[in-house]
Amino acid sequence: MKNIYVAATSQHVGKTTTTLGLVANFIEKGYKTGYCKPVGQQHVTINGITADKDAVLFSEVTGFEIIPDLHSPVIIGRGVTKDFLDHPDQYHFEEKLLAAKKVLSEQYDIVVYEGTGHPGVGSIVNLSNARVAKILDAGVIMVVEGGIGSTIDMLNMCAALFREENVPIVGVIVNKVRPEKMEETRFYLQRKLDQMGFPLLGLLPYEQSLSLPIMEMIRKAVDGKILMNEDCMNNKVEDIIAGSLVDVDEFHKFENLLLVTSTIRLNQVIEKVESVARMKNLKTSPLSGVIVTSDGRHHRWLDLADLNHPYFSKHKIPVITTTLDTYGSVVKITRIEVKINNRTPWKTKRAVELFHEHVDFDNLLKSYE
How far is residue 266's CA from residue 95's CA, in Å, rounded to a whole number? Predict the structure, then answer.
């Protein structure tokens, strides 16, 4: 079978979700399936092994032992692009990709390669997504965001890079489609994609649960420090409420809330939260976590000794302190781009389920017959 390269019209559209779905479905149908992140930008080091973070995720999800030269052969880290322009002869990116491809192709029936960013990412070092797919001799599945006009516009622009490299697009998956617009979107996109010669493999509905951040993501966004209950930093957050607004009428949800409040208001706000919980007959706390803010001007961190309320220990609520003020914290949090990672196994499971439910996998397989 021809290998598959998962590309997308832009960042945060759904490459990882699609790659998870492809790998899981190929395995389910009996194919020995490999994974590779040929070009990565964000890497992590675990047990002395450095690899792209998505490759680490897949090694944990599908159970293979990660070998960086095979599963994450090229990482474009900080400073690499300028150094490449100064000393291109010192880099052998294409050779690394070909070496990984050779070994993986011998080990597996099919290899799913996960792209990086939009199709042009990597061009500075001659490794655009289109060029990498060409090197790997892989057919492309293009992931686009739900819509009609803008979706086709972006697809047409991005497809040009792959046409230039003579790389086939074997199918299109539309992600994050509004559930009430599924049939209308399918009807019009199917018509246009037929004209373009691109098979429509499926539409995935927007799933809010896949867009929820966890407390650890929020800590990073506000550059915060954990004061209490560090073991609960995988708590998911569905909504944010500012301490100054805590009142019965301001609670739109009653679970998985992130409370953002100043040090001065902290105890008073917790009393209000407890009062609301009693009125609503809540058995547990509605809070997933608390961020205690500063005034945004003085870099004073809250100390653990300042937390003299038993509520946090009683309900195992993670508490984070930041030097940002409340407004600045909320702005940072609302700008978080949520991705599936190894701390959100429930997202991984749901992503695979969505793919199984909404993607015509048999139609994809026909393109390989």
Answer: 57
